Amino acid sequence: MKLLCSKLKQKGLKTRVSFLKTCRLFAFILEISLARIVASKRKDVFPIRALVEERPILFRRIFRLWLGLDLISITLKFLVGVYIPLKLGYTILIEEYIPAIISDYIYLSRIVNRPLKVNSFAINYLLRLMKLCNHTQMIFLDAGNDE
């Protein structure tokens, strides 16, 4: 991402990099708090994974709360890191864009046996956010950081 950003800047484009999937504050605070209280003290996994693996029933109960908090966090990150810079004329490079977040939601919902429907609020809301950007070009890269 950094290499691509620097190449685009060399060509004269105003470019920014945004990360939607990481540091989604509100849901992350809930994950960390619950993981510390009820899950093991494993440092080798993300707090949400510890919750899902060690306390799936608890995570199933709070899934909707977690999802709502995550949507609030994503909205804020999207507005500040994507929408406003686009309106200011920047080219935005986004790591883990909305389709990846929707995939995560579907995966987690199935793990906790609360499958999201295709027309669920969470999925439709994220798709509406993505539509705010009008023309979006997505490039899926599957290469190591060195490449």
Structure description:
With 147 residues, the protein is mainly alpha-helical. It has one domain (2-131). The chain is 60% helix and 7% strand. The chain has helices spanning 2-10, 25-38, 47-54, 56-87, 98-111, 121-131, and strands at residues 15-19, 91-95. Strands 1-2 form a two-stranded parallel ribbon. Helix 2 (25-38) crosses helix 3 (47-54) and helix 2 packs antiparallel against helix 4. The longest helix has 32 residues, at 56-87. The chain starts with a helix and ends in a 16-residue tail after the last helix.
* Count of strand segments: 2
Distance between the termini: 11 Å
Mean pLDDT level: 80
Helix content: 55-70%
Q: What profile does the largest beta sheet have?
A: 2 strands, parallel
Give the SSE order as H and E letters. HEHHHEHH
- Principal-axis shape equals globular
Please tally the helical runs, counting DSSP H or I stretches of 4 or more residues: 6
* Strand fraction: 5-15%
The domain tally reads 1
Structural class: mainly alpha
Spatial strand order of the main sheet: 1-2
Regions with little confidence, pLDDT below 50 for 5+ residues: none
Rounded to an integer in angstroms, the radius of gyration calculated over CA atoms is 17 Å
SSE topology:
Elements: H1 2-10, E1 15-19, H2 25-38, H3 47-54, H4 56-87, E2 91-95, H5 98-111, H6 121-131
Parallel strand pairs: 1-2
Helix pairs in contact: 2-3, 2-4, 3-4, 4-6, 5-6
